Amino acid sequence: MRQVDRSSVGVPPSLDRDLSAEISKIREGGEASSKIYRHNDVLSRLRELYLDKCFLCEIFVGNKGVVEHFLPWHKNFPARAYQWENLNFSCKDCNDRKRKSPYRIPANLHQAATRTDLIDPSNPPFGCKVDELIHFNKHREAVSGERESLKSEVINTIKFLNDPMPLCYRNRRWDEFIEVVFQADCKKDWWAFRDMREINPADWEDKVFCEKMSALERGDAIYEMFLRERSPFYTCMKYVVFHVLRLSANDFKRMSEAYRKYKGFPFVSDK
Ligand SMILES: [Zn+2]
């Protein structure tokens, strides 16, 4: 799970207008119109916001993603259907699982949901950043971060992210990463980066690492597949890399950013 800032993309025009007539229809027992909440401009802004990944598990979904309501709409809560802050981009699996107990409160689908007991990455609870609430251990399992670890949103998000399915995807991704790093014979360069960090964190040292990386036959491919924030499960990789390459989450992020700038790659590329 990665924190996002909704103001970076802005409210989609199809939601930024008077929708009171549409909301009244839901209040009177009608269905929410997917033509509105799933309008192209909503989809494209959500894809941009979440870098084409599921807002919860961070698997790449691209054009297979669904628009989901963090708090389910209901005739008693009709405005939720079209509230920009309530809409997210999700994989189908997460969308299905979050409707179940203990994530949906109450669990009874006939009753209006009063809460979703998960962290909303565009509005994390307790004034915290997502990074302060959720980390990953060397087994690719989500664990609580430094703060507020006993709150139910945090406990349930950890449980949600450690479901066998997303955990299996993260493990597979990690195995691929390690294989590529070893095949490309660049483990020693990563170690060198770590050592440079310990001596002096000046910019020119990032350049030395970037020069080494770019000289590798698979340097760009490694960046593209694993080092970009846009890469699937980047948040997990960022923490797990410590246990093998002894790079902190911040080092990993810095290395990724340094390489992107060095090569002049865009933050989000065209598909
Ligand atoms: Zn997902």
Report on this model:
There is one protein chain. The protein has 271 residues and is mainly alpha-helical. The chain has two domains: 6-116, no CATH class; 165-263, no CATH class. The chain has twelve helices and six strands. It has helices at residues 20-27, 34-37, 40-49, 92-97, 130-133, 152-161, 164-183, 187-199, 203-215, 219-227, 234-245, 249-263; strands at 66-69, 87-90, 104-105, 115-116, 134-136, 142-144. The chain has a two-stranded antiparallel sheet with strand order 1-2. The chain has a two-stranded antiparallel sheet with strand order 3-4. Strands 5-6 form a two-stranded antiparallel sheet. Strand 5 (134-136) and strand 6 (142-144) form a beta hairpin. Helix 9 (203-215) packs across helix 12 (249-263) and helix 11 (234-245) crosses helix 12 (249-263). The mean pLDDT is 89. The structure holds zinc ion. Residues 54, 56-57, 59, 90-91, 93-94 line the site of zinc ion. Zinc ion (ZN) binds next to helix 4.
